[in-house]
């Protein structure tokens, strides 16, 4: 279980996170949305123990985090974070060494390392560029390598900070697919983004943040249907929600579902 209890955090005098009580365990994918600067990345750094709240706590399995070196090492095998900039997380020039690094540190046997690295690279669709030097990869490819580096640890919670920032549409679709595969393995994903369409599509529950506070929480379809709330936080509604709210079209979770339902409706109209 990964939760926070009345978590307050400030870098200097002003609080950036203000009394956040959040639960990331109930749903497979929990989305965090909010305008730039609302505190999403700061929250992730608190969740991964890189920053320590001045008040309240991050709880792992019901207990406040252990901030000792050993405690954090143990936490990171269960809760791993992929930050926005992959360059911050990639240390080697070749992909295999980079991904194997944390496992070698933990003293995992080489045969097991090879197996886990291979599985992780397959999951993120990175096998075909596995031999290339990291500096030659695109931003999206680096991002996938960073995710593979988190996956090899076998973490139960993967925290993705702005996973689609800087990706082109195909990179974005690929990221959605990768998130689905991670979830299919029984893991939890926490995903922060100001890409509202992405959060709507992949999340089972969402928290809407504004200036370090939770303004709303619940099922994405319900929360994002509240037009006035979305305006207040400086976000637009997901386009699939807009079609439903403004034109009364069926509320669908994905573009594919929407078009397939519309095609069926049209076919039925033509037949009648
Ligand atoms: N290292 C830092 N020192 C001081 N203030 C910071 C630092 N990092 C972020 N902030 C401030 O904290 C607030 C939240 O930032 P951040 O967590 O990056 O938000 P988000 O990820 O939602 O865009 C912003 O006002 C930002 O300027
Ligand atoms: Mg951020």
From TrEMBL:
What GO biological process terms are annotated to this protein in UniProt?
A: cobalt ion transport
Cross-referenced Pfam families: ABC_tran
Superkingdom as given in the UniProt entry: Bacteria
Any one cellular-component term (Gene Ontology)? ATP-binding cassette (ABC) transporter complex
Looking at the keywords, is Transport present? yes
Please indicate if the UniProt record lists Nucleotide-binding as a keyword. Answer: yes
Q: Where in the cell is it found?
A: Cell membrane
Protein task: Part of an ABC transporter complex. Responsible for energy coupling to the transport system.
Protein's name in the database: ABC transporter ATP-binding protein
